[in-house]
Amino acid sequence: MAETLLLGIDLGAGSLKSTVITAAGAVVATASAPVETLAPRPGYSEQDPEGWWAALVGALRDLWAQGVDPARIAAVSVTAGAHTHVLEDAQGRTLRPAIMWNDARSGAQVARARAAHGDMILARSGNRISPTWTLPQLIWLREEEPGTHAAIRRILPAKDWLRRRLDGSAATDITDAWGLMLADAATGGWSAELCALAGIAPEVLPAITGSSAVTGEVGAEAARQTGLRAGTAVICGTSDTNAETYAAGMTRPGIGALKLATAGTVSTLTAAPAFSDDVIHYPHLVPGHHYAILGTNSCASAHRWLRDALFAAEGFDGMDRLARQAPAGCEGLLFHPYLNGERSPYWDPDLRASFVGLGFGHGGPHLCRALYEGIAFTLRDCLSVLRDRAMGFDTARLVGGGTRSALWRQIIADVTGLTIEVPAEGDASYGAALIAGIGAGVFADTDDAARAIRVAETLRPDPSVRGVYDDAFDRFREAKAALTPVNHRAVRTLRGAA
User: Fold this and answer.
1) Residues 150 and 38 grouped into a single domain
2) How far apart are the two ends of the chain, measured CA to CA in Å?
3) DSSP letter string over 329-392?
4) pLDDT per position as a tens digit, 70-127
5) Can you say how many angstroms the Cα of residue 143 is from the centroid of all Cα atoms in its chain?
6) Bond preceding residue 273 cis, omega within 30 of 0
7) Quick one: 186 and 318 in the same domain?
8) CB 210 within 8 Å of CB 235
9) Does 271 lie in the same domain as 229?
10) Which UniProt keywords apply (predicted)?
C-alpha cells in the first residue's frame, strides 16, 4: 500500500514554499517559487494575490516533476503572514493589491486611533495598534481610497484567500482573525466596535474555525490547475509564525523561538495572554496556550538589500565569507536595520537604517558582519522586553532562512546569551504539513505531531565575546536614540517632496 503523504504550503513575503512529508514527519520533497513585492511609494509594501496563486501552481508542479504522486497526498494546509489581506467586491473580484504586514502607510491613522480609541482597541483586540495591523490599513483606505473601501464585500487573510482557491471555503482561524485586529479577544468572534472603527460590517469577514479543521476539498478547477487530486482534504491552516514556532518545537512554556526571515521575531509560549502595550499576543496552535511575540520590520530583507546594493557579485555566500574576516564587534561599526521603520520594541514607522562609526579602516567584511550583528541586536532589544515582563527564556529554537549561515547562528547565540537549538525541519511549510496531518487524522493531536520534531544543532554563547557585544549593544541603543529625531526629520522632508 502506498505511503500517505501530507502537503504544507507557506506563502512568505519573498517566496511560496511547499513541503511534502510522510506520516512519520520525514520530508519527501520541497519546492519554492518567488513572490514579488511592490513598493509604489516610500513606506508602501504590496503584493498581487494572483502572483501568489501563480507561485502556488508553479511550486506544486515542481513537486510533481520531482516524482511526488499527488494521489498519495491525504491533506493540504496553507499558512501565510498574518495581517496581509485581500479585499473583494460583490462579484468576488480583487479590489486592489494586498497591503502587506510591513507596510507603513497608516502611521497617521494609527496615531489618531491610539489617541481616541487606544484603550478600547487594546481591550477588545488584546494588542496595541500599529501600522502592521489590518484595522488601521482599512481606516487608511476609507480616507485615501474611499471608492475601494465602499466596494468591500469580503475580506480574507492571505492564507485563506489562497486556500479558498483550492476548496471554495470562506473561513479563517482564530490566530489570523486576531491578526486583522477585528476580532474580540474575549469572545473569539468578530468585534462590532472594531469593525465599526474600520468602517466595515462584520458580515464581510469569514467564519472563524479551528486551525486544523477541515474546510473542504480540492475542487475540479483547482485540481486542473495545480495537479492536486480532486477531493483531497483541505485543512484551514494558520499564520506562518504560529505554524513555524510549533514546527520548531516551541510546544511548551520555557522554550522560545527566534526567526531570521524577511522580518525577525522573538516569541515564547504562555499559558494565558497578559495583554500589554508593548508585547503582541496570539492564540497558539497548542490548545489552551497563547504566544507572546515581538517582531521587527527588517531581517533577511535587510540582508537582501545590502546584497543588491553593494554585493551583487558576491551573493549571500560571498557576503558570509566576507563577514568571517571581520572581528566580533566590527571594530566599532554598527548597523541599524530600520529600512522601513520599526515595529518592536519602538513601534516607529519613521525610524530609518544607518551604519554608524564608519572609518577608513572598515571595508566589505565589516559591512557584512555589522548587518548580522545589527539584526542580532534588534532581537536582543525585543528579548529585553520579554525579560522585563518575566517572560524570558534561556533556550530558543532558531528558524528562518537566515539560519543557513553558521556564522549568523553563532552571532545570535553570542549577542543574546541564549542557548540556540536549530531544528532539523522548522519552517512554516513543514508546520503546515503537520497541521494537515492533524486535520486529516494522521496525527491524533498537536502532541502526537510534535513527536516528529528533531533538533539538528545546539549552539552556546562564546563567553570570550560577551563583553564586546554588551558594549556594542549599549552603543547600538544610544545611537538609535540620538538618531531618532534626525530620522523623523528626514522622513518628513521626503514626504513633503513626494
Assistant:
1) yes
2) 64
3) TGGG-EEE--BTBB-TTT-BTT---EEES--TT--HHHHHHHHHHHHHHHHHHHHHHHHHTT--
4) 999 999 999 999 999 999 999 999 999 999 998 989 999 999 999 999 999 999 999 9
5) 27
6) no
7) no
8) no
9) no
10) Kinase, Plasmid, Transferase
